[in-house]
Amino acid sequence: MSTIKKVAIFGAAGNFGAPITSALTSAGFDVTVISRPSSASAFPTGLSVVRIEYTDVDALVTALAGQDAVVCVVGPGAIGAAKGMVDAAARAGVRRYIINDFGWGINENSLPEFKPLGESRQVAWNCAKEYAQRYEGKENGFTWTGITIGNPIDWALAKFPRMGFNVAERHATIYDAGTEEFTGTTLEGIGQSVVGVLQHPAETANRFVKVRSIQVSQNALLAAFQKATKEEKWVVERSTTQKTLEDGREKHAQGLNGWVLDLLVFQLYAPGEARCIVASREDSDSSLLGVREESVEEVVEKALGRART
Ligand SMILES: NC(=O)c1ccc[n+]([C@@H]2O[C@H](COP(=O)([O-])OP(=O)(O)OC[C@H]3O[C@@H](n4cnc5c(N)ncnc54)[C@H](OP(=O)(O)O)[C@@H]3O)[C@@H](O)[C@H]2O)c1
After folding, report:
1. 115-134 and 82-92 are packed helices; what angle lies between their axes, rounded to 10 degrees?
2. Which residue, 19, 79, 128, 223, has most beta carbons within 10 Å?
3. Which residue among 16, 20, 190, 264 has the greatest number of ligand 1 atoms within 8 angstroms of its CB, and so is best to mutate?
4. Any idea what DSSP says for residue 274?
5. Residue 239 burial (CB count, 10 A)
6. pLDDT of the chain along its 309 residues, tens only?
7. 183 has which bridge partners?
8. How far apart are alpha carbons 62 and 64 in whole angstroms?
9. What angle do CA 42, 9, 211 make, to 5 degrees?
C-alpha cells in the first residue's frame, strides 16, 4: 500500500479529535477538517476546514475525493451519520478509514446493558468491513482500522470523579481492595495511535489494533496522587463494585442517567475479572504504532493538569 499523506478528520475539535489532529499535523500529515455548517467548534489556524451536513453523503463524497485516509472521531450524538461517512469515503476512493471506536472494540467482557450502544456503533463498522471485502485484492482499495484504547485514562480521571478520584476536592473512593488492574491510553497515546496506523497501513489493514499507555490499579493511582499533592491530605472512602453494579442496574431499569458510568466503573474494578485489560504490553500494537508506556506518576500529573484547566 502506498504512503498515506492526505487525511480528512470528522470530529477534529472533540475530546479525542483535538489531540489526534494535533498529532497528525505534528507528524507531517496534510490534514483537512470536515465539520458541520452549524458547528461552533474551533480548529487550529492553518488547517483546511470544509463544512458539510454529515447526512449529505453526496457532498461528503466530493469533499473526500483525493484524500488518502479518513479518521472518524465524532461524538455519540453523530453516530447515526457514521455509516454515511463510510459510504462517502469508499465512494470517494479513500484507501484507509479509521472507524469510530476509540473504546473497547467488540468487547465480549461488556455487560449486556451496553449491547444496544455497541450495536449502534457497529452499523458503520460493518459497513466498512463490507467495503473492504468488496475491494479485497484491488491495489489501493478501501481498507479500515479500529483503534481500541480501553480507558482514556488522563482525560477520564480528570473528568469523571465516579472513577474514584475527585481530583479537585482531593477525595478518593476505592472500590473493594483497590488492586484490580486495568489498562488505559492517554490522549497523547490516542493521538500517536492514529499516526502509527497511518504510518503502518499494511500492518494495520482491516483489523482492530489495541493500544495502551499504562496498566495500573486504583491503589497505585491513589499513591501517585498523594505523592504528587503531598502538601494536601486526601480523604479516602471505601465502596464496592457490587454496589456500583446494583446502582447502575437500578438506574438503567428506571431509565435514569448515570448508569453508563456506574457500570463502566464496575467493569474497570470488578475484582479478579481483568475485564478492562485491553492487552498486555507484548500483545498490544503499541510498539508497532509508537505508543509509549507511561509511568503512573506521569499519568497522574497529566490528570492533575487537566483538572486544573
Ligand atoms: N473509551 C472511552 O471510555 C471513551 C470515552 C469517550 C469517548 N469515546 C469515544 O471516542 C469517540 C469520540 O468521542 P469524543 O468524546 O471525542 O466526542 P465529542 O468531543 O463529544 O464530539 C466530537 C465531535 O463530534 C461532532 N458532534 C458531536 N455531537 C454531535 C451531534 N449531536 N451531531 C453531529 N455531530 C456531533 C462535533 O464535531 P463538529 O462540531 O466539528 O461537527 C464534535 O466536536 C467516540 O466514538 C466515543 O464513543 C470513548
Report:
1. 10
2. 128
3. 16
4. -
5. 15
6. 679 999 999 999 999 999 999 999 999 999 999 999 999 999 999 999 999 999 999 999 999 999 999 999 999 999 999 999 999 999 999 999 999 999 998 888 899 999 999 999 999 999 999 999 998 878 889 999 999 999 999 999 999 999 999 999 999 999 999 999 999 999 999 999 999 999 999 999 999 999 999 999 999 999 999 999 987 899 999 999 999 999 999 999 999 999 999 999 999 999 999 999 999 999 999 999 999 999 999 999 999 999 888
7. 215
8. 6
9. 110
Tell how far the Cα of 15 is from the centroid of ligand 1, in angstroms. 7
Rounded to whole angstroms, the Cα distance separating 102 from 76 reads 12
Give the CA distances from residue 76 to residues 85, 128, 223, in Å, rounded to whole numbers and listed in that order.
14, 18, 34
Atom 1, ligand 1: residue with shortest CA distance: 103
Amino acid at 90: A
Decide if domain 6-148 falls under CATH 3.50.50.60: no
Which run of H or of E encompasses 120?
Answer: helix 115-134
Q: Ligand 1 atom closest to Cα of 14? A: 19
Please give the backbone phi and psi of residue 28, each rounded to the nearest 5 degrees, phi first.
95, 10
Ligand 1 in reach of 107 Cβ (< 6 A): no
Tell me, in angstroms, the distance from the centre of ligand 1 to residue 246's CA.
28
